[in-house]
Amino acid sequence: MCTADLVEAANDLGRAILRVLVTDRVAPGHPFAPIHWTAETAPTGRVDVLVAANPDPLSGQPDSKASTVTLGKYPARWYGFAVSTDDISPDCAYWAKARVPGGWRAELAGTALPQDWVAEARKLFGLADCQVASVSDQARSLARVAVHRDGRLVAALFVGPEPVALARDLVIALLGKGQAHDALAGRARGDVVDPGPTVCACLNIGRNTICEAISTGRARTVAALGEVLGAGTSCGSCRPELAGLVTRFGCREAAE
Ligand code: FES
């Protein structure tokens, strides 16, 4: 199993479908999953369905750490990534959506393979009055659909037989203002800087931006990243990841 695969976690109480992050931050045999997904944001991603109704009598905390599950790779036939200026309610076996600046993003997957991805995109986004641009490679089961209005991107869908690899934050940044053909490319043009996946959500700062600051010597510490970029200066929850990037890319640069 690889990062971004889907895994099915199950026990006698229920089942959940979750995205995989392979990491050494948890001990072997001890899967960790966040509790914050709801029926509105990821209906098959709720881990409370795997936890017995046995809360601590004093704190009221659920018995999550005593829950045992079996894990198996979820047999998705397609994976997708979508962005939209309007809220969306996908209708597929797995989905998880979250707010982004300018709209919504969603990870999708299904076990039934649609015949027409443009029709699926129109159904997903419900934007009948918009124009559509698309590219597909049927032999490789790849498709990209960009929906635009008055030349501005309002939604996009990317699908493939494996977890979709593309510059997600770049596509999100195009929502409501970018061009459809830029979204279809799924990666940065030569004159556009790809900020990379978001590390500091409070300040909306991406990994590539942070790594560039570290590797060019503009910021060699977490504190300096705060001064130069603002990263880590609000809630602070990203500081451990910032420290990891400083160690990794600062050391690499020093060693070269
Ligand atoms: S996520 Fe970086 S300061 Fe909150």
The number of helical elements comes to 6
Taken as a percent bin, the fraction of beta residues is 25-35%
Average pLDDT, rounded to a whole number, is 89
Number of strands: 11
For the termini, the CA-CA separation is 33 Å
Element string (H = helix, E = strand): EEEEEEHEEEHHEEHHH
* Class per helix and strand makeup: alpha+beta
What Rg, in angstroms, do the CA atoms define? Answer: 20 Å
Spell out which ligands are present: FE2/S2 (inorganic) cluster
Arrangement of strands in the largest sheet: 5-6-4-9-8-7
**Low-pLDDT segments:** 252-256
- Largest β-sheet summary: 6 strands, antiparallel
> Looking at the structure, what is the overall shape?
globular
Q: Classify the helix fraction into a percent range.
A: 10-25%
Structure description:
The chain is α+β, with helices and mostly antiparallel strands. The chain folds into 3 domains: 1-73, Barwin-like endoglucanases (Beta Barrel); 78-185, no CATH class; 198-255, Arc Repressor Mutant, subunit A. Helix content is 21%, strand content 25%. The chain has helices at 117-125, 168-174, 180-185, 207-215, 222-228, 239-255; strands at residues 6-10, 15-19, 70-73, 78-84, 94-100, 103-110, 131-137, 142-149, 152-160, 198-200, 205-206. Strands 5-6-4-9-8-7 form a 6-stranded antiparallel beta sheet, sandwiched between helices. Strands 2-1-3 form a 3-stranded antiparallel beta sheet, with no helix packed on it. Strand 7 and strand 8 form a beta hairpin. Helix 4 (207-215) packs across helix 6 (239-255). The longest helix has 17 residues, at 239-255. The two termini are 33 Å apart. The chain binds FE2/S2 (inorganic) cluster. FE2/S2 (inorganic) cluster is lined by residues 200-203, 232-238.
